[in-house]
């Protein structure tokens, strides 16, 4: 993987974790 792909992947993983976290807390998910 190139650097750009790695960054994109990391960002996707962060978004996924954020969504999971919000679901656990019962917060609305913005997307």
From TrEMBL:
**Taxonomically, which superkingdom?**
Archaea
**Would you tell me the protein name for this molecule?**
Coenzyme F420-reducing hydrogenase subunit beta
């Amino acid at each position: 993987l190139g650097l750009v792909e790695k960054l994109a992947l990391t960002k996707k993983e962060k978004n996924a974790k954020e969504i999971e976290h919000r679901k656990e807390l019962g917060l609305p998910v913005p997307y």
